[in-house]
Design brief:
Helix content: 25-40%
Order of helices and strands: HHHHEEHHHEEEEHHEH
Distance between the termini: 47 Å
Strand order of the largest sheet: 5-4-3-6-7
Radius of gyration: 20 Å
Amino acid sequence: MKLEKVTNVSPGRSRRYHDACGAAHGLDLIGERWALLVIRELMMGPRRFSDLRKDLWGLSANVLTQRLEGLEASGVVQRRKLPPPASVQVYELTEWGYEIKPVFMVLGRWAARSPQHDPSLPISAVSVMQSFETMFDPARARGAVMRLGFALDEDRMVVTVADGRIETRRGEVEGCDVVVRASPPAVVAAAVYGKVPLQALEGEGAMTIEGDRAVFARFIDFFHLPEKAG
C-alpha cells in the first residue's frame, strides 16, 4: 500500500513531521512555539484574548492569533461567546484538550530538575496554581484539611487540600481559611518554592495574609523542588 504524503498545513501550524509516531503527531498539534503555554493559560477555564496576551509576556497579538487558530483547527481549543451581560468572546480547551494536563505535570516536574531552570523569571497566576498540583507531596500533607484563597492581581484562585489530594480552581476567595494577596504572582512562588520568609515579603509590601497564617505556613511545607539533575 502506497502512503500519500500530507502537505497541507493547518492555520497557525507551519511545519509537520510526517511521522506516524503518536508523539510526533502530538508535536504536530502543539509543537509550535507558544502553543503549549497558550494551552497552559486555558487550563483553569475560559479566557479572553486580552487575558491571554497579558499573561504571556513577549507574545505578539499576531502570533497569539496564529496559535489560537492552529489549536482550534486541531480540535484542542474552541471559541464561544459568553451570555449577557458579559457578551464577550472567550477561548477554552475542548474536553479532549483538557486531557493533556498530566503531560504538563510530568514535563514541569522533569524540567524543574534542569540546572538551567531560572525560577526568577516572570510566572503567571495560572502557572503558579498548576505548579501546586505538579509539586504537591501527599505524604507531607497527611491529615491536612484546608482551603486557601489566592488573590493574584486580578485573578482569584482557590486551593483545596484534603485526603492527601490537592485541587486548584478559579473562584471567589471569601470564606477560605486564609487568603493570600500578592503582586506579582511570582511572590507566591518565592514563598512556596524559594522559602522566602513571609515576614520579609509582607515587609516589602508584596504580600498580605488574611486569616489563619498557620494554614499558609503549613501549606508551604507541602512543596519542595526536586534535586537538580547531575
